[in-house]
């Protein structure tokens, strides 16, 4: 256990986090990968399987289309039909949450399916790392990742059939090229663009066989799909990692897409560049990476050329032919020699150039615009608040909301780090109004000076949002959600602030002095609530305590003088009623020792819990450990993905 805690504290080491998110994301687990696979280097050769009948590989093509509307929809329809037309052995998986995509899939038939269980941003853009992880769990012989508007020709299938005969694990890459539709005498014609670097498409498709070796070592950063850089990153990593044979099949796979007049550049693109920038890029033709090969055809046979063109692998020869010594070539191999010369003359791709970052990743979206996008029809928003010491807790909370299909949430970030982190994780985020400047990483626990400052930001934010006409359900990110409580909470109607009780005594009143928990409450946007919250914020500003006592003392009177029965208060000045929530439904962290139960989840569900607050515990690490070990945890800190049904991982291995 000692060692385990040491490991944990290593991951969360304050200094590491301060030195940048990227380092933690990319280096921490990279090193783990190296030691496992370092011994499995490939040799510079191509091995074919012994011929065994005509086994046709099963192929799954994965992509994430945009909605099937307008010209984009037409282009995608054309593309998907071109894939399915190549072979009965090809099936297609579309990642999307858009209804137009599922109706398209239904119209096409059984060989195409739609999956929603991967990570998307709140704007509906899927994450590339999540797509790759899902594709890796496929049982098909070959998996393919492709842009949704790439049209494929028959040689795609024949190339993969050939690659399937290789007796080693491989990753195959092919650039795809833009074409435009030109109207010529009323007839639309495909017109290839003049590509400056002959074989350098911006877009590419990536395929790999279902083998034992991973594609690369290290962890794929949370790139967004379709925003550039991610393909390049994956291929570069595969080359550096040297696990698999990397094949440039651009010459044997004909693929193209209809070019759009003007591709939008967005902050998502900038984010991807920023993530990718931390890697030097390498050329396919760098002689240091001799495990990459260019595939071409010559006289109807496939031909492998290695990166510096010193050797070729040719059907029927078990050993490479050394091109440096021309006298070794028989006259009958003249054709072969010409083929190699032709391949050589075609420029290579993947230049050695640093990826450029055009914009800063933090393009703030205003609170007003995010509220308009995120709030539900009843103008209700769920507000979560987090600082960088709670990034993982925040993501577990966000993943849980995604799982429960609760889209109307917004996160307020207490510092720049958690803001950037949230943007890159596709979370709708704003910067909290005038956040405290000095948040202690590990010691911002209940009662500390830091805690007091942080909590006061919360009520100020809630007040601002109420004044904009939105109802707010504030939830700390250490609140685990079993099911959606909104219908229940809104049933109390306007003029009532519904809050969790922090009472630990199982018997007796739950509205005793200072028992109002300001980490989970629902505030309706009405004049009484706004006036009362205004008083709370005012009180907190002059108090040297946290905001929690300000809530109670303002709304329930000092010493509980405005108490009403055992579970309510009535503020005579604003006429706001406070209702303390039933603790069986909304238990705090001390109630009935639920966190100490053998099976916290079961114990809680049996009581009918909507939520369970992970409070009444001091120290961030203990809190985190308690939640992970109880299984009330939804996020994988290693891969930076929400835990998914298809994704097998064990978060308990963190400890
Ligand atoms: C490639 O190898 C050469 C000679 O061994 C070396 O000088 C060079 O730094 C290497 N390049 C990379 C990118 O590793
Ligand atoms: C080329 O191969 C021939 C026959 O094996 C050999 O005699 C000759 O030395 C080789 N030349 C070079 C430059 O390796
Ligand atoms: C809005 O409120 C009504 C009435 O309280 C409720 O029936 C409905 O489900 C709410 N809509 C949403 C999107 O929550
Ligand atoms: C931040 O906290 C540290 C230690 O708790 C303290 O030394 C420093 O003065 C604080 N800075 C500000 C600006 O409050
Ligand atoms: C719990 O509340 C009861 C009254 O309902 C009281 O008698 C008892 O002393 C309380 N226990 C604690 C530990 O405060
Ligand atoms: C907080 O303020 C109260 C009076 O409002 C005072 O009695 C108390 O000593 C103060 N505590 C601290 C830690 O400053």
Automatic annotation (TrEMBL):
Pfam families: Nucleotid_trans
Segments forming a coiled coil: none
Signal peptide: none
UniProt keyword list: Membrane, Transmembrane, Transmembrane helix
Domain spans labelled Nucleotide-diphospho-sugar transferase: 406-626
Keyword Magnesium found: no
InterPro entries listed in its UniProt record: Nucl-diP-sugar_transferase, RAY1-like
Residues that span the membrane, as ranges: 20-39
Any one GO MF annotation of this record: glycosyltransferase activity
PANTHER family attached to this UniProt entry: BETA-ARABINOFURANOSYLTRANSFERASE RAY1 (PTHR47483:SF1)
Protein name per UniProt: Nucleotide-diphospho-sugar transferase domain-containing protein
UniProt source species: Salvia splendens (Scarlet sage)
